[in-house]
Specification:
single chain; alpha/beta; 10-stranded mixed sheet; 6-stranded parallel beta barrel; 23% helix
Length: 585
C-alpha cells in the first residue's frame, strides 16, 4: 500500500458543486469493498495503473456526501482554477441528477464515476475507467465506448437505448429498457434468475446480444456506417447530448416494437424456402446464420437462427410451425459442448427484451442468407478491396508495401500460418494487412522522410492501431517493431518480428495510449481465439517459443525493446514536432 497522500485543500468547486477533497486512502475506505456480480472487488485505488496512477502530482478524489443536482457533468482531471491537480474519481454518496449530460473525459483514461444513490440524466456516455452506479439509472441513452472502460450498474435501469462500442457494461436488471445495441461482439451483460438442475434458483450473469439495429430506434441523422457496413453513432451526436436533447426517434414504433414481426417472419420463411428446399448456412467470423426446415412429432417447422460462438455460445432461434401457424422464439445459452444451459422460450407476442434479441437475430440472419449472392455480382475492383481487409491476399500482394526491402523469413512464415488459419483467429484482433498508401502514417506527419521511415504491415487491435517496421537498417531483421496508436502514441513494441510473434502468443490485443503501450489479459473476461492452440504449437515448432501466460511476461519483451530503441525513437519523432508521452520522455 502506498504512502498516504496529502490533499492540497479541503474542498473545491467542480461544475458548480462543492466537493470534499479526499486522498486515495480515504477513497479506499468508501469504495474499496464495492463488488461486482460475482462478488469480486471492483476497485483497488492503489494498483498504480492508468486507472489510478501514482506518478501524477496531487492525485485526489472528489466526494459529494449529499444528493447533487447539476446541468452538465464532464469528468475532467482538473479545472481552470486548479490545473495542477489530478482527479482520480468522483464519489457521490447520495443521488446524482444531471439535467443534460454526464460524460467521461477521454476514451483512453478518465476519472472514475462512483454513485451510491440513483443516477438520473438524459444522456450518459462513459469510458476510460471503471464506473459504478449503485442505486440504479434512469436516462434516455447510455453509451459505453472502448475497452479502457467498464461499467457496473446495480438496481433498476430505465433507458430507451443502451449502446456499447467495445466496452463491457454489467447490469443487475432491466426494469424498462427498449433497445440494446452492441456494435460488434456482445459487450452488455445482464444478471438473470434461473432454475438449476436441482430445482434451486440461482443468479447468473450472461452476455446479452443486440435487440435492434441502431437505425431501428435512433434518428437517421445520427447513424453512420463503417467500411464493413456496421451501423454506429456519428454525425455530431455528442453535440445533441450536450444540449440535453435526445437522439431517439420516438416515431419508429414499428421498428423498435417489432409491430409487424409475425407477417415479416412468415414472409422470410417463404423466401428462404423457395431459395432452397433444404438447409441454408452462412458463417461470418464466429457467427453462424441458418435456415433449417424440419419435421418434429409429425409437424412441419422452419427455423431461422443466429449462433454466436467464440466463447459466447449464444443461440437465438425463431421457429414457424406450418401446421399450427404458431411462432416460437428461443434464446439459449450453451456450454462448451453445445448443450443448453439456460433458455428463454415464448411466442412472438410475449413482452420482454429477451424476445427482442431473438427477433433481431432472425431478421439479421435473413439479411445474411439472402445476400450471399450479392458478392458474386460485385465488380473486380470491389473484390480486390474486400480481399485486402479480409486478409485473403497473396504473398506477392503483401510484399508490394515492402518495396526494395526483403521480407524477413519469420514474417513470411507468419504470413503462411495466417493464410492457412485466417486473420484474427489466432491472436486477439491481430492480422497481417496490405497498406500501400501510408495514409495512416501520414496523419502523424506528411514529411516524406517521416512516412518513408516506416512500413505498416499488421493491424494491432480492434480500435485501429497498427504495427510497423521502423526502418533503421537495410535488413528488416535488425529493425524494431513499433505501434501507431489509433488515439495517440507511437511506441516501440519489439526488437524484431520474432519477438512480436512471442507477444502474440498471449492472445490479447495491445492497448495503446498517448503515454504507453501494454498487454493486459483479464482472465475473467478472456475468450480464447479458435486457432490459439495451433498458433502456440506453430510458434514452438518454428521458433522454439513457449507461449506467454502472463501480462508480466509481455512486459519483459516490451522493456527490452524500450531499453534498446526508445530514446532513439523519441529523438526521431521530435524532429517532426511529434509530441511524445510522459513515460517516453
Amino acid at each position: 500500500m502506498s504512502k498516504e497522500e496529502k490533499v492540497p485543500f479541503e474542498t473545491m468547486i467542480f461544475s458548480g458543486v462543492t466537493f470534499k477533497v479526499i486522498n486515495r486512502h480515504e477513497a479506499h475506505e468508501i469504495i474499496g469493498d464495492l463488488t461486482d456480480f460475482k462478488d469480486q472487488k471492483i476497485y483497488n485505488v492503489f494498483e498504480d495503473t492508468w486507472r489510478f496512477p501514482d506518478y501524477e502530482e496531487n492525485p485526489i478524489f472528489l466526494l459529494a456526501e449529499e444528493d447533487v443536482e447539476m446541468e452538465s457533468f464532464e469528468m475532467d482531471f482538473s479545472t481552470e482554477e486548479h490545473p495542477d491537480i489530478f482527479i482520480l474519481g468522483f464519489i457521490f454518496k447520495g443521488n446524482l441528477n444531471v439535467s443534460k449530460l454526464i460524460t467521461s473525459y477521454d476514451t483512453d483514461n478518465s476519472p472514475a464515476l462512483i454513485v451510491f444513490g440513483k443516477t438520473t440524466t438524459v444522456n450518459i456516455t462513459l469510458f476510460g475507467s471503471i464506473h459504478y452506479l449503485g442505486g440504479g439509472l434512469k436516462c434516455d441513452v447510455l453509451t459505453g465506448e472502448y475497452n479502457h472502460g467498464e461499467l457496473f450498474v446495480k438496481g433498476d435501469v430505465t433507458a430507451w437505448l443502451i449502446y456499447s462500442d467495445d466496452m463491457w457494461m454489467h447490469f443487475e436488471r432491466f426494469t424498462d429498457v427498449q433497445a440494446i445495441v452492441n456494435v460488434n461482439r456482445p459487450d452488455v451483460l445482464i444478471c438473470s434468475s434461473v432454475t438449476d438442475t436441482d430445482g434451486s434458483v440461482i443468479m447468473v450473469e450472461n452476455y446479452f446480444p443486440s435487440t435492434h439495429k441502431l437505425s431501428d430506434i435512433v434518428n437517421d441523422d445520427f447513424v453512420e456506417y463503417t467500411s464493413y457496413g456496421t451501423e454506429i453513432l456519428g454525425n455530431n451526436y455528442l453535440d445533441v447530448f450536450a444540449a440535453g436533447l435526445s437522439i431517439i426517434d420516438y416515431d419508429k414504433t414499428d421498428q423498435y416494437l417489432f409491430t409487424d414481426f409475425r407477417n415479416q417472419f412468415i414472409e422470410m420463411v417463404r423466401v428462404l424456402s423457395e431459395k432452397n428446399e433444404g438447409r441454408i448456412r452462412e458463417t461470418i467470423s464466429d457467427t453462424e446464420y441458418q435456415y433449417v426446415p424440419f419435421v418434429y412429432e409429425g409437424l412441419n417447422y422452419s427455423q431461422i437462427s443466429e449462433e454466436i460462438a467464440n466463447g459466447f455460445n449464444i443461440q437465438m432461434r425463431a421457429l414457424w410451425c406450418h401446421d399450427t401457424e404458431e411462432i416460437m422464439l428461443i434464446l439459449e445459452y450453451q456450454d462448451e459442448e453445445g448443450n443448453p444451459k439456460y433458455q428463454w422460450i415464448n411466442n412472438e407476442t410475449a413482452p420482454g427484451i429477451e424476445m427482442y434479441c431473438v427477433k433481431a437475430a432472425a431478421m439479421k440472419a435473413f439479411e445474411v442468407l439472402t445476400a450471399e449472392n450479392d458478392e458474386e455480382e460485385e465488380d473486380e475492383d470491389d473484390d480486390i478491396e474486400y480481399a485486402e481487409y479480409d486478409s485473403s491476399f497473396s504473398l506477392e500482394d503483401f510484399a508490394v508495401q515492402f518495396g526494395n526491402y526483403t521480407i524477413p523469413e519469420d514474417l513470411v512464415k507468419l504470413y503462411e500460418f495466417q493464410e492457412e488459419y485466417g486473420s484474427e483467429t489466432y491472436s486477439e484482433c491481430f492480422g497481417l494487412l496490405v497498406t500501400n498508401d501510408k495514409t495512416g502514417i501520414k496523419t502523424w506527419s506528411e514529411e516524406e522522410e517521416f512516412y518513408n521511415s516506416f512500413i505498416e504491415f499488421a493491424g494491432a487491435n480492434g480500435s485501429g492501431s497498427s504495427y510497423a517496421y521502423w526502418l533503421i537498417d537495410e535488413d528488416l531483421n535488425n529493425c524494431p517493431i513499433v505501434v501507431f496508436g489509433d488515439e495517440g502514441g507511437i511506441h516501440v513494441v519489439a526488437e524484431n518480428i520474432r519477438k512480436l510473434i512471442h507477444l502474440l502468443t498471449l492472445d490479447t490485443e495491445i492497448s495503446v495510449d498517448f503515454d504507453s503501450c501494454y498487454f493486459y489479459k483479464d482472465e475473467e473476461y478472456y475468450h480464447e481465439n479458435e486457432n490459439k492452440e495451433e498458433f502456440h504449437d506453430w510458434a514452438k515448432r518454428e521458433f522454439n517459443l513457449d507461449a506467454l501466460e502472463s501480462n508480466e511476461e509481455t512486459e519483459v519483451i516490451l522493456n527490452e525493446a524500450k531499453e534498446k530503441y526508445k530514446r532513439k525513437l523519441n529523438d526521431f519523432l521530435v524532429k517532426f514536432d511529434i509530441e511524445i508521452g510522459d513515460e517516453e520522455e
